[in-house]
Structures are given as structure tokens and as C-alpha cells.
Amino acid sequence: MGDDTKDGAGAASALKLAVPKGRIAEKVTRLLADAGWGVEASERSYRPRCAAPGVQVKLLKPQNIPQLVALGRHDLGFAGHDWVVEEGAAVLELLDLGFDPVRIVAAVPKDLAPRWRALGRPVVVATEYERLARAFVARHGLEAIVIRTYGATEVFPPEDADVIVDNTASGETLRQNGLEIVETLLESSTRLIASPRLCAEAPEKWRRIEEMRTLLDGVLLARRKVLLEMNCPKDRIEALVAALPCMRAPTVAALHGDEGYAVKVAVDRDVVPSLLPRIKALGAVDIIEYTLEKIVP
Length: 297
Known about the structure:
Blueprint: H1 8-13, E1 15-20, H2 25-34, E2 39-40, E3 49-50, E4 55-60, H3 65-70, E5 76-80, H4 81-87, E6 92-96, E7 102-109, E8 123-127, H5 130-139, E9 144-148, E10 163-168, H6 172-176, E11 179-188, E12 190-194, H7 198-201, H8 203-223, E13 225-232, H9 237-243, E14 251-254, E15 261-268, H10 272-281, E16 285-291
Parallel strand pairs: 1-4, 1-5, 8-9, 8-10
Antiparallel strand pairs: 2-3, 5-12, 6-12, 7-10, 7-11, 13-15, 13-16, 14-15
């Protein structure tokens, strides 16, 4: 399992990985496991073991990870792009995992929507995203009071705030609370981030980070694809190959006894339902669909 080295040299050479707690943790740890970097954690431990040797893992709130990676307290980690921007963290975003896509939006009560910029007094803005909210206020030239919230920002209007700046996936929670989106400030998803100083200062760590990024990217790509295998008569092969979407070109091999061809192709998972009837009509038979674990282009 993980590297249990306790001495100073071992600690210095270990790759320090910050993994987010909370709702995103399960997706991140499953991705790490599929890439061969499995993380084993107990319910009470903030320092789980990692299947990759020489890796120290710590569980942290996702809001804290960008700044800690920027400071060099951790070499790499996972965090939402929104928190990278909100914290003004000087990190490298190496990979967009696509997990938990959200928008950071400004929203107001519906009856306030036509006049929220001209209330005749300072606008009260409630938010967990103070930096983004203040930039929003500045763009609109507003006089405003920004209130820092600690969750459940949508409950502040209308009694306690005129505007909120918050994250939303579908906007449904905002609608249920009588709020209307007036501007999208940012689009966000979970990213793999790293300390920019490692490339020059710790090339061996940087090499491991690049290897990890390649493996994670390979898993994410494989999740979007399936492998199709099929047989095809000789007189139908050209039409079939022309109809197949693929990463580069289908693999085509002659069947024993000159009985036609075997065709293999990786395709996007979401096209399979419409693709299968089409290729069957073009002569494909004995079609087999496989799931994939990794694809490294």
C-alpha cells in the first residue's frame, strides 16, 4: 500500500496530494482507484493511505485546497475552478475532470429583477464568493455591502439581501426560492491542480504528476467510449467502415478462410444506441460491445 516513511528525507520526497472532502470525494477517489492510485480512508482519518508508493494524502475541504497548493503545502490536489478563482490561487489547472459542473451566478428576487441596479441605496449582496461578488459589484458600478454567508445563501433574500452570488447546477433551487438569475459570473467543474513551482524545482515530482495526469485522462476518456467488435462480409466492408465513427481508423482484419472481415472500433458511448441499428443494416454481424478501463492516446 502507501509509503509509510516517517523520516525527513522520505517526507520531503513524498508527493503530497490533497483530496477534497464532501460530496465530490466519492467521484475523486473512484477516479484515483481506476487510475491505480486507490485511496483507503477510515471514517475518522484525514490521512488515508494511497496505493501508489511515495504518496501522502490528506483530506481537506475543497475551498482550502487551491490556496494550500499555491503555497506549496501540497504538491497537487483536486478543487473546483470556482474556488481557484475565488481564492486567486496561483496554481496550474492540469486537467478538467468534468465533475460537478456548476455556474456561479448572481440572482435576485423576481419582483426586484427590473430594478435591482437602482434601489436608491447600497445593494446588499450575500455570498460565499466574496472575491467574485466584489468583482461583480465593481463591473456594474454599484455601491454595495457584501455579506459573507456560510451555506444556504439562497435563503437570504428578500429580507436579508437584495442579490446573492451563488453556485447552481440547474437553477432549480433558485427558482424554488423565488430567485431569478441576472448574470452568470463563471462556469466551473472539478480540476486537477498543481503547484507551478514543481516543474523547475522538483522535476522528479513533476514527472510523477504528469504520469498521474495521463492516467486520469486515460480513465476519463475510457468512460466516454466503448469498444465495438463485429464481423462483416467482404462485399459490405467499405460501406461499413465509412459509417463508423472512430478515434483514428477502425482496425480491420481478415477472417480465417477468407470469410470476410473482423472490425474493431472505439466509439463514443452516447452514439451506440443509434449506431448499432445502422451498422447492422450495413452488414455488421456478431456485434460485441465492451467497456474500457483506460485509453491513452
